[in-house]
Amino acid sequence: MDKQRDFVLRTIEERGVKFVRLWFTDVVGTLKSVALAPAEVEGAFTEGLGFDGSAIEGLTRAYESDLLAHPDPTTFQILPWRGEIDPTARMFCDITTPDGEPAVADPRNVLKRTLEKAAEAGFTFYTHPEIEFYLLKSAHFGEDGPEPVDSAGYFDNVPGGTAHDFRRRAVRMLEDLGISVEFSHHEVGPGQNEIDLRYADALTTADNIMTFRTVVKEVAIEQGVYATFMPKPLSGHPGSGMHTHMSLFEGDTNAFFEAGAEYQLSRTARKFIAGLLRHGPEISAVTNQFVNSYKRLWSGDEAPSYVSWGHNNRSALVRVPLYKPSKGQSARVEYRAIDSAANPYLAYALLLAAGLKGVQEDYELPAEATEDVWALTDAERRALGYEALPYNLDHAIALMEESELVAETLGEQVLQNVIRNKRHEWAEYRAQVTPYELRANLEIL
Amino acid sequence: MRVEQPLSLTALARAGFTDLDAVRGRLAEFEAACGLAAPDALALFRAAADPDAAIERALGLLRRDPDRFGRAFADAAVARRLVRVIGASQGLADFLQRRPGEVDALRHPISAPFDAAFARTDLLEAVGADPADDAPVAALVEEEGWAALRVRYRRRLLQLADYDLGQEDPVAGLDAVAACLADLAGAVLEASLAVARATARGTGPGRFAEQRVADTRLAILGMGKAGARELNYVSDVDVIFVCEGDVDVATRLAVLTMRGADAPAVEPGLWQVDANLRPEGKDGALVRTLASHLAYYERWAQTWEFQALLKARPLAGDAELGARYVSALAPQVWSSSQRDGFVESVQRMRERVLDHIAPADVDYELKLGPGGLRDIEFTVQLLQLVHGYTDERVRQRATLDALAALVAGGYVGREPGARLDRDYRTLRLMEHRLQLERLSRTHLMPRDERRQRVLARATGLAVGAAALVAEWQGIKRTVRGLHEQLFYRPLLSAVAALSPADRLTGERALSPQQAQARLAAIGFRDPRGALAHLAALTEGVSRAATIQRTLLPVLLQWLSEGADPDYGLLTFRRLSEDLGSSHWFLRMLRDSSGAAQRLSRLISGSRFVGELLGALPEAVAWLDSDEDLRPRPRRVLEEERDAVLARHETADAVAQALRSARRREVLRLAFAGILGVITIDELARGLTDIVDVLLEGVLAALRRERRGSEPHGFRFAVIAMGRYGGRELGFGSDADVMYVYRSADGAGGPEALRLAAEISRLTADPRLPLDLDAGLRPEGRNGPLARSLEAYAAYYARWSLTWEAQALLRARGAAGDRHLIADFEALADRTRYPETFGPAELREVRRIKARVESERLPQGADPARHLKLGRGSLSDVEWYVQLLQLQHAARIPALRTTSTLEALAAEVEAGLVPEDDAQRLRAAWLFASRARSAMTLWTARTSDVLPSDRTALDGVARLMEYPPRSAARLEEDYLAVTRRARAVFERGFYGDGSA
Predict the structure, then answer these.
(1) Which tens digit of pLDDT belongs to each residue from B960-972?
(2) Which of A45, A63, A407 sits opposite B979 (nearest CB)?
(3) Which domains does chain A have, with CATH numbers?
(4) Which CATH class is domain B627-832?
(5) Nearest residue in A to B291, CA atom
(6) What is the ipTM metric for this complex?
(7) What's the gap in Å between the CA of A407 and the closest CA on chain B?
(8) N-to-C CA span, chain A
(9) Chain A residue with minimal CA distance to B973?
(10) pLDDT tens-digit profile of B74-90?
């Protein structure tokens, strides 16, 4: 630790960093930031930085408003979009109470705790997300909803676009931040983009996702456009998912790989998938946490609506991707329900917990789905045992409330915060009169 | 050659042999090999710790190298030393087997242990390095170098062992030997580093250019026993590496240096070199620069890591760099008592001192068992840390030096200090001799008598196995009491005059500041106040004050283990002021450690107990007897009630006697509940019985007074409701009641109301409130306080679906007229166990519950933390159970009970509730009930909301038998258990309409 810390303090000096932002995340997954002058950084390492937690969603019990943020020096990065004039850096923080206990509702701590549990069982957890998002002309929208930047499908037409194009700029920035990416602009939805982050352990990935969202938003601002990770911003076009590839390693070996087994899937992998399938519905309120998330899940396209798994089956909830048998280390499974607006710390903690439970309690993997699950009739799906994912947020909350797995993983108090927060959202949503209703009903009733 | 005159077996036994028949043959063989005749040989071997082994090993050596060892045995002086060494050490005998030439070391006996400079020079020369060089480089590399230094080390060990075994008083000489062993270990590392420098030079993997190696400065710091110069014959040598210059080169040198001491090779390794005390332990870099070490300790280190630094000393390598390391870190070691978490880490350390993690061999442990070496070392270190901040003199590395400094500074009494010094040396001597035997790292007392006898002979501590074990047991006993003796007793000297005996021996007192530092370190939040209590308690020359001085040290220790030591000490002072002059109080506490410990636990953990004890100090006497802590059976309570009624005339007098009986019995139950001698079931029943008997007595006395003036045919009864009706009272529960009467002329109303009011008045007790709550009567607070049976019948017939009717499920006659009670219960049965309970009724009950949920929870209360009305807590479980009773009790008689848990069990039995669900409900109900009781016990006030203050949660958790510092766990457990119950409740109670 101290080597890293020394590196941080040295770099601040050498690069003339003017501000250091301490980053942490609330239960919804919104990035929070406190700025420090360089002189205060050393103190923040030693003592932590005190702040009033009551202002932040779900971070505290009401009476426990004093919290400390402890920066994690391994996450230090200079933020590239601030330029060289007033160089700014950031670090992620762990949040504790003044007596040193981890704050009950620090999502980063939830993931750390779950990773520790996996480590006790001998596993490390790696993830690799494919993050989709839309580029819009503006955050404001008219009667027809948001307007994508490129209904034509190409980027050059961005109004006000400069010589730098979005893609080059974003990739450059991410790589400056030490995040390797693969970028693809695909034309499924107008203005929709996908960026894949490289394989890393789940905590690093979650940190990277938070950084990534900020970078994309910053670059968009630079370019005079608006980026959104909303799960389903345009009703006629596909939603933005965050398909996540996962694998467990035991030491240096990929625990999902077994040469010669079906699809090279080890027993551990099969149990892990079984765990994801059994607990998929009850963790939906976290992997798909907004009212809007369910618009994506139930609109077909690339999003799964039913609980099933398959080899290269794009309609399945869990897909086992194809890879070269010689590349045993890249054995992995892909979870396709999670969307780009999830809180990555909580979502990954739950995915890991669900999979681990399958491994530890020896779940039986159901039969593989070889057909297109969407194309089946309801009766067929019932006969084949493909349970549906929750239909909406309300349904998801109800399932989560019944879940021991979620309670154990998040802790009782985070769970309460999440439920309170989500219930509130559902209640507000339900009270809305939507354009659809007006369109469909107003004139005839 | 034949032995001329066979030696008598007696003579052999007298010489210390045990295997007598075999010895004759061996003596013959010995004479044949070296010419020494049996009587001389006998004289020679009788001096060995283990004569049988000595002669066997001697024969082995003679077979290995007849010439050399023949000559050695022929020289009387050499023979004597040789036998002394191999008679005590198989390990050294093996060494001579491997290296017969080294026996000539015994021709040069030493008259004092080697000094450090000699050891360094000697070992460096053994590997062909120049001792005058600051960074010597060996002429030998790798295994060749290792073998050379190991053989030389063992040669010196042979001489040292000979010296050690020949000492007149090995107990007194122990520290010099231990220091020499540490110096030899340092010299080994120095020589090994020289070999490493030679090995790491050159080209190829793991080698560096000569200049790079020469430019790298590496210092080896000794930690633990090596650092403190109190090393054992064989133990891990704890080190830390510091470098300046090229870290890669330094790391390579460090690795090679460690290997030189412990890697397997032709000449076996000496001992493990352990570098795990370094920053970040096993995961940290093996070698760091000084700046990196300093930065680590400044910012990251835990308190225990500072404690480890206490013993750091430059051991080998670059002396200047090592010295800088020590002088830079020393201030931080000693300011660690000012760091956050110091008190907690001291407490943990204390727990380690007191609760040994019992190893399998606990009875044979010299080191880790109770009364072992570790006890002494921890106790001394703890005192050093507490007082070293202000007093530089106690900043010593070695245990014995530190002890001496603590005595000199007045922190430890002279007499206990001297005894401790001796005990520590004695235990260490035993350990030394045991390790010498096989040159192995052991600290287990041998189990068989033969080896115990050998140990007795090797140490010279006792004659024979039994005497040695007895001596050891004695030491263990003293050492066990030592922590109290050394840590707590001197606290009193800060406030009390020294006894004449103390003055005679020149004892000194702790200053108030020193004593306060100690009190704060063990968890007193107001050390100044605590010291004032101690002063008051021990003031004067009375007998009581004298006993207090003996008692308090151990009491302080127990109090400091509780959640609120300050309150405990205050209560103890009050008790002592009330009872100090009574003949039994202090004597009991002094003579019964069980009672004293129980008292400490009660008063440092419960204000409820503390306050009741204020009114009833005699209750302390119960603590001496388990029998007195059992709840009094109902029959005994009733006998007392009858006696009180017979003894006193007026209702007021009766009530006063019965109220104090109630306080007494509630206190007894509080004792029993906290000390865990009764089950929660017994507790609830006991608390209920106490109220029943009180009400019966008061009611009887009131009616006796009014005999003759009551209306014709007047009858009256008190009906228990709620938890009281269910016989499920906890500490701080209200007693819910209703009053019913009957009279022949129908004009009993005023009399009944008068009675009800009188009962309230006479049972009220400001010292231990009893809230007779009649709020569950028809129409609640708006209804008349007492009604006639007919009025109840009419009311319930009309309003059969109200909360009042449902409340009848827990109605039970508590006191008063038997016939009237029977009639009331029959009336209640018709209402509470209705023949028909259809969908309309079901809906109504659900509606009421839903309304109660939203209305009764106090403003702003967090439903998740409300024990009574909160999510999944008491009222949820009770409503669930009651709804099923309403629906099915008419049909299933087993459901007709006023007890929630009994009804729930009957519902499972009847197949109405799945066992899984019932378990969740039961768990939540019990948890919430226990938490409520524990909260009342902790604060002496009743509250329905789980506290959020960490100290309060910790106190409550301890009362619920959690380990110390479980605030967060209690909270999580409560939330989990009630969440599960709520899920069951929602499904079953509101559910799909078929509940």
Answers:
(1) 989 887 888 899 8
(2) A407
(3) 2-103 (3.10.20.70), 113-441 (3.30.590.10)
(4) alpha beta
(5) A6
(6) 0.70
(7) 8
(8) 68
(9) A412
(10) 999 999 999 999 999 99
